[in-house]
Specification:
Elements lengths: L3 E6 H15 L2 E5 L1 H5 L3 H8 L5 E6 L2 H9 L6 E3 L8 H6 L3 E4 L2 H6 L7 E5 L18 E6 L8 H15 L7 E3 L15 E4 L20 E13 L4 E2 L5 E2 L4 E6 L16 E4 L2 E6 L7 E4 L10 E5 L5 H8 L3 H6 L6 E5 L1
Parallel strand pairs: 1-18, 2-3, 2-9, 3-4, 4-5, 5-6, 6-7, 7-8
Antiparallel strand pairs: 1-10, 10-13, 10-17, 11-12, 13-16, 14-15, 14-17, 15-16
The structure holds pyridoxal-5'-phosphate.
The site of pyridoxal-5'-phosphate has 13 residues, from strand 9.
């Protein structure tokens, strides 16, 4: 029996997708790279495949696409990082759609009739062509990626303008997409798809955000020991916490090896029967210590690490990182449970 359980409410994910589709009047590419940010790509794809609001899926590399195809997923699967030498057979055999962003990708595709999407670099400075590409009947989509949709609206608007410029080089295209979750706050009139990862789970990608989202995730861990340490005792490695009074300590079986980053040492709270219990001392590989003074807590109790009242986003802000990083660092000893 797992001591660390992540629950993904698939009904809530589906509801968030419907709300995003309604607000944007676009269909979605559900971005499921890195095992759907650690939330479980196969389970999500199986649930979302039947939704009319979902056009298809996006993954980072071919192997992630093959995993979905082996799970009987039939909708389009975009491979965001393109196609490398030696990958053509795999990509064709599993009917994956490469996103071409480098002349070398085109070279690999030269004897193939496989449809592909073209990616332009409109200011992300990562993947994408910097100049318009020749017309090619195999091109079924054009895309780009926003670098700062949650933090810089002027720059985002510049990227949108450059994107529309690149679209001029192509005739009518079946698929045009630019926005990620935070990008939904902007209008891209010529786009007909949006690529959404984070917002599916109810994580607010930007403040303010035009779509009301519900939180779909819960992470909980078990208490393995409870005891009272006397005033003056030090807690955990390196003595970063020395107690100024007697404190009841609960030892919870989640640590930095599970993704609870050490940056949260002496920061934030876990929820014990709904009440906040402060994190004390350095977070260790497998355990974290919390102050449960005055609480009725017992060995074996479940403690909430993440839920609607303390999201991955909130923890990430405390830790000086982003929710994506905390989510995809969840360990393999975390059991994923799906509510339908
Ligand atoms: C990860 C990714 C997305 C999804 O981003 P979210 O912020 O999670 O919505 C969209 N497009 C590309 C190219 C990505 O790499």
């Amino acid at each position: 029996m797992a001591r660390l359980v992540l629950t993904v409410n698939l009904c809530t994910v589906a509801e968030n997708i419907r709300r995003i589709a309604r607000a944007t009047e676009r269909r979605l590419i559900a971005v499921l790279k890195a095992d759907a940010y650690g939330m479980g790509a196969t389970s999500l794809a199986r649930q979302l495949e039947a939704m009319t609001e979902v056009f298809g899926f996006a993954v980072s590399c071919p192997l992630e696409g093959v995993v979905l195809r082996k799970a009987k997923i039939v909708k389009p699967i975009l491979v965001l990082t393109g196609i490398l030498p030696g990958e053509l057979n795999l990509i064709e055999r599993w009917r994956l759609t490469p996103v071409v962003s480098d002349p070398a990708h085109l070279l690999t595709l030269k004897d193939s009739t496989l449809p592909y999407h073209v990616k332009y670099d409109t200011g992300m400075g990562r993947l994408g062509f910097l100049s318009p590409q020749n017309h090619d009947p195999r091109i079924c989509g054009v895309m780009s990626h926003l670098s700062s949709a949650g933090t810089d609206s002027d720059y985002t608007k510049e990227q949108i303008e450059r994107f529309e410029g690149f679209l001029g080089a192509h005739g009518p295209l079946p698929f045009v997409h630019l926005q990620n979750s935070a990008g939904i706050a902007f209008k891209v009139p010529r786009a007909n798809l949006v690529r959404v990862g984070l917002a599916m789970f109810g994580e607010q990608p930007a403040e303010p955000f035009p779509v009301q989202l519900s939180y779909a995730l819960e992470l909980k861990a078990r208490v393995v020991s409870v005891k009272t340490l006397a005033k003056g005792s030090s807690v955990s490695y390196n003595r970063s916490c020395v107690l100024s009074e007697d404190v009841q300590i609960a030892v919870v079986n989640i640590g930095y090896a599970d993704g609870l980053t050490r940056a949260l040492s002496n920061k934030g709270f876990l929820l014990v029967h709904g009440k906040p219990a402060r994190v004390l001392g350095d977070i260790t590989m497998d355990m974290v210590l919390i102050d449960t003074t005055g609480m009725d807590v017992r060995v074996g109790d479940w403690v909430v690490v993440v839920d609607a009242s303390q999201t991955f986003g909130a923890l990430a802000r405390l830790a000086g990182t982003i929710p994506y990083e905390l989510m995809c660092n969840l360990s393999s000893r975390t059991r994923r449970v799906y509510r339908r």
